[in-house]
Design brief:
736 residues; alpha+beta; Anaerobic Ribonucleotide-triphosphate Reductase Large Chain; 29 helices; 18% strand; globular
Length: 736
């Protein structure tokens, strides 16, 4: 603890941080002696120019430079304010943008852009309504999804509401082809619908681990080019995790239809179980609201677990959503049943749920980097978080969502997801190692201060502008709610009583109970007065934003992928992805401030980097999970994080990562292992390309081989061998 305090360059009164006053520790910042600006690398400016710079209908730039982009966004978000304070907030918003606040891509691209692209949204993340188990319902949701993608929003769906392959459809007199066949339709739609918001299609498909077609879902991406517009994630329950740990059996089930019951099906039979299901329409329920389900097959849980792990090892999917943890820790636990997430997984959302995002660039608050006097400016950080919270709340007023249900949902709860980026870069600049005890403590404090500061601002905004409508609505207490939160019973609340949303959120949510350990007064005030929003924090993957506006600081909560690597980017008019050479921000900074000759992996003492310069390739999977767990305690939504493991990682070691993630209380878990036989990926290291050979079959049947980093002329263009091979195999060649 002592070295951690000194490394931050602050005087820390530990006694004042005990008990209820921890929200206001006595911190005295030490002034920085050096806060130089690191020049933007060419790749960063290029990505800003291609993705975030506003252009007119003739493609002429409207934003003259990055600061002009910030000015446009600041004005658009301040125009929401009253006329008498509009100018003041425009200046404060611009200050925050210049000091580390980075709204998500849809806000950067589309705020203040209505004159040039009026049909776009400032919202990154949405979730579909429940996909009904009918042809009409499936196609209606496909239409809604197309309109959502056209507006530039990503979207998530749960597909395990659709009956399994081979089930009889009485209306058609035939047998269904199962959920994955309909997912293929959504996949093609996503690829076809061009995003007017300048964003390529992004989709998440979630699937219950008890669905009879779960093996097909797990193995889907083993087929070349299939479901490539989707991220795939399984809804993992505590029951399944326990069955795996205990080597127990696992039932694959789906609700029985009314037709089956009318035909004489015995609901007391051994092949019937009663389970929670996202919809009860058309199904038989018991007094507890559980749905009658048929057991299609009983398997060893370990068999399914091994199938999941082997697919994830080879293809990096499916990811895990620990759905019980998501719902148990949801601020809106009293009015939401979450079954799906946004495309990257950091926003678990109810039907038609939407969320706007933004991240704070932590490197902006590092003073005296790479020295014994390095410290983090906590006071300026909290100032930026406070102003940024108001900015994000204002985005709700200019959401631009295409569907009535989406607009109603976001206006009712006003949830947003503030997170941070550059954690890995910042840890390095403070001379710590990612995953070590110091870095865990630092990560937790970053997340905790963001949470407490953001909620305090939410309370102030509720007093100024009014709380989110959900706060003042009355909710009738049910037996299920009493089961979820026994504290209600202890307080004398019973079935049938009406309780305000702000009370159920502020006093009875698990997350707010944790916040109360830090600042009980803040939580009491929220329970009494409400908050401007139901959710404040999530940590998104910020790859493109981090690379462009933040000069390639590390992505979100991640360490830097590598300190010198390539990124594959889509270029309009180019038939394959383009390989762009990039440096990590911390390497650029070190070369600018300390040693201009420094390079990763150099054996020359004059070029060597300090040992605290680590990257994803030399961090253990356990350390990745520990960092995520340190932040998750204080994040009220979820975290998108990728645990990068080396290609040669042992399978037995690999498959234990997910059980460890469940033990640590994570809401989700995703891994990435570079597998050149399966896919190319977005981020690549030169060493991986150098060591991978790709074989091409020519028209005459002969074959030629190239190393992944070799340039190949094909169809009148120059491509890297790896990107050409990937484009041809996956079927996207020439379709950008």
């Amino acid at each position: 603890m002592e070295r951690f305090e000194k490394s931050l360059g602050v005087l820390f009164d530990k006694d004042k941080c005990k008990g209820e006053n921890m929200s206001a520790p006595k911190l005295k910042s030490v002034k920085a002696s050096n806060d130089q600006i690191i020049p933007m690398q060419e790749a960063s400016l290029d990505i800003w120019d291609k993705k975030y710079r506003l252009r007119d209908k003739e493609s002429n730039p409207v934003d003259s430079d990055v600061n002009a982009t910030y000015k446009r966004v600041a004005k658009a978000l301040s125009d929401v304010e009253g006329e008498d304070i509009r100018e003041m907030w425009k200046e404060k918003f611009l200050w925050a943008l210049q000091h580390g606040a980075i709204p998500a891509g849809r806000i950067i691209s589309n705020a203040g852009a209505q004159e040039y692209k009026p049909a776009t949204s400032t919202i990154n993340c949405t979730v579909s309504g429940i996909v009904p188990d009918s042809m009409v319902g499936i196609l209606e949701k496909n239409l809604e999804a197309g309109l959502t993608l056209k507006a530039g929003c990503g979207i998530g769906y749960e597909f395990s509401t659709l009956r399994p392959k081979g089930a009889y459809v009485s209306g058609a007199g035939a047998y269904t082809s199962g959920p994955l066949s309909f997912m293929d339709i959504y996949d093609k739609m996503c690829f076809t619908v061009s995003s007017a918001g300048g964003r390529r299609g992004a989709q998440m498909a979630t699937f219950d681990v008890s669905h009879p077609d779960v093996f097909d879902f797990v193995k889907a991406k083993r087929e070349d080019g299939r479901l490539r517009q989707f991220n795939l994630s399984l809804l993992i329950t505590e029951e399944f995790i326990n069955a795996v740990r205990n080597d127990g059996n696992w039932d694959l089930t789906f609700p029985v239809s009314q037709k089956e019951i009318e035909g004489g099906l015995d609901l007391n039979g051994e092949d019937i179980v009663w389970r929670h299901f996202p919809t009860t329409d058309g199904y038989t329920t018991n007094d507890d609201g559980l749905v009658a389900c048929r057991i299609y097959e009983t398997i060893r849980a370990q068999k399914l677990w091994n199938a999941i792990m082997s697919s994830t090892y080879d293809y990096a999917e499916p990811g895990f959503i620990l759905i019980d943890e998501v719902n148990n820790k949801n601020n809106n636990w009293f009015c939401e049943d979450i079954r799906a997430t946004n495309p990257c997984g950091e926003q678990p959302l109810p039907p038609y749920g939407s969320c706007l995002l933004g991240s704070v660039n932590l490197t902006k608050f590092v003073r005296n980097p790479f020295t014994k006097e390095a410290y983090f400016d906590w006071e300026e950080y909290k100032d930026v978080v406070s102003v940024f919270t108001r900015m994000l709340d204002n985005v709700v007023e200019i959401n631009g969502l295409p569907l009535d249900g989406q607009r109603s949902e976001i206006e009712y709860k006003r949830r947003h997801g503030m997170g941070f980026l550059g954690l890995g870069s910042t840890i390095t600049m403070l001379t710590m190692k990612y995953g070590d005890a110091e870095s865990l403590e630092f990560t937790e404090k970053v997340a905790r201060d963001m949470a407490v500061t953001g909620l305090a601002t939410g309370l102030e905004l509720a007093r100024e502008k009014g709380p989110a409508p959900v706060m003042n609505d009355d909710f009738k207490i049910t037996a299920e709610m009493l089961f979820k939160q026994p504290k209600l019973l202890k307080d004398g609340i019973k079935v049938g009583d009406s309780v305000k949303g702000k009370v159920l959120l502020g006093k009875y949510s698990c997350y707010m109970e944790k916040i109360a350990e830090v600042d009980s007064g803040l939580v009491d005030s929220i329970a009494e007065e409400g908050c401007r929003f139901s959710h404040h924090s999530s940590i998104a993957p910020t790859g493109t934003i981090s690379l462009s506006l933040a000069n390639n600081v590390s992505n979100g909560i991640e360490p830097s992928f590598a300190h010198h690597y390539s990124r594959n980017v889509i270029r309009e008019g180019k038939k394959t992805k383009e390989k762009v050479d990039v440096f990590s921000y911390e390497l650029l900074s070190y070369r600018e401030l300390v040693n201009p000759k420094a390079m990763p992996f150099s054996t020359d003492p004059e070029e060597a980097l300090p040992d605290y310069f680590v990257s994803s390739e030399n961090i253990t999977p356990k350390a990745h999970v520990d960092i995520q767990a340190a932040a998750q305690v204080w994040v009220d939504s979820s975290i998108s994080k990728t645990i990068n493991v080396p290609t040669e990682c042992d399978y037995e070691e690999f498959k234990d990562i997910y059980l460890y993630a469940a033990e640590k209380g994570l809401k989700g878990c995703t891994t990435f292992r570079f597998n050149p036989e399966a896919f190319q990926g977005v981020l690549v290291k030169e060493s991986d390309l150098e060591n991978t050979t790709y074989s091409f079959t020519l028209e005459d049947g002969s074959t030629v081989e190239f190393k992944g980093n070799e340039e190949v002329e094909y169809d009148g263009e120059i491509h890297t061998a790896a990107n050409l091979f990937d484009a041809l195999k996956e079927g996207y060649y020439g379709k950008f």
